[in-house]
Write a structure and sequence with these properties.
Layout lengths: L2 E4 L15 H14 L3 E5 L5 H9 L9 E7 L11 H9 L3 E7 L2 H8 L3 H15 L5 E7 L1 H7 L1 H14 L3 E6 L6 H12 L6 E5 L6 H10 L4 E4 L13 H11 L13 H11 L17 E2 L2 H9 L17 E2 L7 H10 L9 H16 L7 H11 L8 E10 L8 E9 L2 H7 L5 E8 L2 H14 L9 E9 L10 E8 L4 E7 L3 H22 L1
Parallel strand pairs: 1-2, 1-8, 2-3, 3-4, 4-5, 5-6, 6-7, 7-8, 9-10
Antiparallel strand pairs: 11-12, 12-13, 14-15, 15-16
Length: about 525
């Protein structure tokens, strides 16, 4: 049995820009428990009030699979273990397991702690011996173990033996600086296994991009506990990514660990942690990234359609992900057919319609369009080409004025928009005047244009009020042209029920923004009609 130890709430929270609230930590705890994680390290109760509150509040959760673990250092020098405030806070958490870290690199003992090597061994022994009176399990994180072993193997082993003699339930070898390569991991664990009998664990950082492979090698060499974080969050280059380790361990290597059926929840847990850490979900993550099972080249799509094994190393549904067929200038007819099927539309690969759609996509992408991040624009293009959606409105003109009256005043913009709705829609809605001419102000031209367009359409389509713009990106396509370069605008919108992306391209950034804005609102109206 290989035990998974998650440290997202402590080590992962040390990622630059990440700060979990108490409520975030509790939500992640419940998700990890539902996934089947064996140990969840909740934090360091002696370090801050939020972690103290977590250990008090988490007692109220009905956890079925996970044990909550508290984390701390060994006792401070010069005081009795029972008088150390950090150790006292650990005891008061009343959790079933604790992890204490101690120095295993003599450099840290003499330079950071400023104590003798023998004193450090006493700190390790006394702390673990004391905590064993209060907890079912005590784990020892041998900080900087691999670096320490490389420089002074005899002393690094002594720190493990001190913890083992004190009763530690698992000796966790830490690659704290993340610089150890796979062959060194093999050699060092082989040497350690000859010196200690207690179970071993691994805590790897990713500074050399070795964290996942070092963790798996440790298991092959006999380790029974792997520590890591969801999405590889952590300081610097991050920690070992459990979203890769768990499926590798269970699906590829066949070890008993997280139940196979639970792995279907891995994708949603990964997305939740990204959302709560206020970070974009990395699309290129193995197993759980949106690109992990995405196919763009026509040859790939055609082969996957016949047999997914041709370009997929596992069934994406095993980890809760799904196959994505991308549409681009590299697309073949199979891409179009598969993408249409995702939308509930069956097409013949050899039909005139498919050829027409493919030609239109290739033409637009040659102009700078990019449908991979704007699937709503693609769906509109597809359905408009096939005659499966109506024309909701027509632009009769817009004007945007930007003005700054003095250096001390903020610039502002004003936009006017004139639109017309089709006669049949006007009759259907009982509207006599099919035209609307409105104006709106904004802090910038795009905001003003967005407000004016919405204002013009809300009279005819009240549900437009539900749409909110959540992201706006501008990409310059031909940087060498300087200020004459064509921009591509990508917009993300939501109506509270769904999110969608749209795209616009033009030599004029205002017109590019207009095109993306129009697609965003047309998509909303189309989806309302389909419901």
């Amino acid at each position: 049995m290989i035990y998974i130890y998650d440290t997202t709430l402590r080590d992962g929270a040390q990622t630059r820009g990440v700060s979990f609230s108490l409520e975030d930590k509790l939500r992640i705890t419940q998700a990890l428990d539902d996934l089947g994680i064996h140990y969840i390290e909740g934090g360091w109760p002696g370090s801050n009030p939020k972690d103290l509150a977590y250990f008090e509040t988490v007692k109220g959760l009905d956890l079925r699979n996970s044990k909550i673990v508290a984390f701390s250092s060994t006792k401070r020098k010069g005081i009795k273990v029972e008088e150390d405030t950090n150790i006292g806070q650990l005891v008061r958490t009343e959790v079933p397991a604790v992890t204490v870290f101690g120095k295993s690199w003599d450099l840290h003992v003499t330079e950071a702690l400023k104590i003798s090597l023998e004193e450090n061994l006493e700190l390790i022994y006394e702390t673990i011996e004391y905590l064993k009176k209060y907890f079912d399990e005590v784990f020892f994180d041998a900080e900087h173990f691999f670096d320490g072993y490389k420089e002074n193997p005899e002393y690094a082993i002594k720190t493990l033996k001190a913890a083992e003699e004190a009763g530690a339930d698992c000796l966790v070898l830490c690659d704290t600086n993340g610089g150890t390569l796979w062959y060194e991991t093999e050699e060092i664990i082989d040497a350690v296994s000859k010196e200690v009998k207690a179970p071993l664990g691994i805590h790897a950082h990713n500074d050399s991009d070795m964290a996942v492979v070092n963790s798996l090698i440790a298991v092959k060499k006999g380790a029974i506990q792997i520590q890591g974080t969801i999405n590889g969050l952590g300081e610097r280059a991050g920690n070992a990514n459990l979203c890769s380790i768990i499926p590798d361990l269970v699906i590829k290597m066949g070890y008993e660990s997280i139940p196979l059926e639970n792995l279907k929840k891995l994708y949603s847990v990964s997305r939740l942690v990204s959302e709560l850490s206020n970070s974009p979900h990395p699309v290129n993550l193995p197993f759980v990234g949106d690109n992990a099972f995405a196919h763009k080249a026509g040859v790939h799509v055609s082969a996957v359609e016949k047999n997914p094994r041709t370009y997929e190393h596992i069934d994406p549904e095993l980890v809760g992900n799904r196959r994505r067929i991308m549409v681009s200038e590299l697309s073949g007819r199979s891409n179009i057919v598969n993408k249409a099927r995702e939308l509930g539309i069956e097409l013949d690969k050899n039909s005139v319609e498919v050829k027409k759609i493919l030609e239109k996509i290739k033409y637009l992408e040659a102009q700078g369009y990019h449908f991979e991040g704007a699937e709503a624009s693609f769906e509109l293009l597809l359905k408009e080409t096939l005659g499966l959606t109506k024309k909701y409105f027509e632009l009769k003109g817009f004007r945007v004025i930007a003005e700054k009256r003095s250096e001390d005043e903020e610039a502002y913009a004003e936009a006017t928009v004139k639109v017309e709705i089709p006669e049949e829609i006007a009759k259907e809605k009982g509207i006599e005047d099919r035209f609307e001419h409105t104006a709106a102000e904004g802090r910038g031209p795009v905001e003003a244009l967005d407000k004016a367009l919405r204002k013009a359409l809300e009279k005819f389509y009240p549900s437009i009020r539900e749409v909110k713009l959540t992201d706006y990106k501008v990409r310059i396509l031909d940087e060498a042209s300087g200020t004459a370069a064509s921009p591509r605008v990508l917009i993300e919108s939501t109506d509270g029920k769904r999110k969608w992306g749209t795209v616009g391209v033009s030599p004029n950034v205002i017109e590019a923004s207009w095109l993306a804005l129009v697609d965003a609102l047309k998509y909303k109206l189309m989806k309302d009609d389909e419901e």
